[in-house]
Amino acid sequence: MLPNDFDKWTYAKRARFGATLKGKAKELTTHAPPAIPEVKTAEGFSELLPAPSTNVSKHYHEHLAGLHSAASSDDLKILVEEVRSASLFHKKLAVGVVAAKLKNDSELAELIRTVVPAVRLKLLHACIESRRVAVLEEVLPKLQESYGLEYVAGIVHGCSSAVVPFHNFWSFNTLC
């Protein structure tokens, strides 16, 4: 499905190609677990992990093309699944597109509350970049309750001025 020299293309060229594959995002981003061949050493032992022939994952390029296809066709279901998944593939791309294109603020706020902490931080910063003030203000009280003021102080600059005076950050000794 992908050209043979796809791995040598620039990122921008891959993104343009992925955008032309509208409707094929699901089949490009889902793969069966790889079969691990049993490799025997000269001594007759089995290697647990055979030596890799490349430092790039087997489906790296297909996955990238599929995510670009989903982003260009506004298929946010695949991108939300990618944000929730444990996979480390192209998390920055999926998070940025979801934060910018997901229209329902409450769905995005719920996604921020339910993902793992590393992805949560990426989502919060993507919301700041795409100026999703309503989402940030919706999750701010819950994040303050769960993680404290130090955590909230890192994202308060993305909120409106109506919310910021409510949180008196400078009265706490740990922040001064």
Task: Describe the structure concisely.
With about 180 residues, the protein is mainly α. The chain contains 9 helices and 2 strands; from the N terminus they run H-H-E-E-H-H-H-H-H-H-H.
Q: Low-confidence spans: pLDDT under 50, at least 5 residues?
A: none
The percent of residues in helical segments reads 40-55%
Structural class: mainly alpha
Separation of the first and last Cα atoms: 57 Å
The coarse silhouette is globular
Total beta strands: 2
Report strand order across the widest sheet. 1-2
Largest sheet: 2 strands, antiparallel
- The averaged pLDDT comes out at 79
- Strand proportion, as a percent range, falls in under 5%
* N-to-C order of helices and strands: HHEEHHHHHHH
Computed CA radius of gyration, to the nearest angstrom: 21 Å
Number of alpha- plus pi-helical segments: 9
What does this structure look like?
The protein has 176 residues and is mostly helical. The protein contains nine helices and two strands, in the order H-H-E-E-H-H-H-H-H-H-H. The radius of gyration is 21 Å and the shape is globular. The chain starts with 10 loop residues before the first helix and ends in a 23-residue tail after the last helix.
Features:
176 residues, mainly alpha, 2 strands
Record the SSE blueprint.
Blueprint: H1 11-20, H2 25-29, E1 39-40, E2 46-47, H3 60-72, H4 76-84, H5 91-101, H6 105-114, H7 117-129, H8 133-147, H9 149-153
Antiparallel strand pairs: 1-2
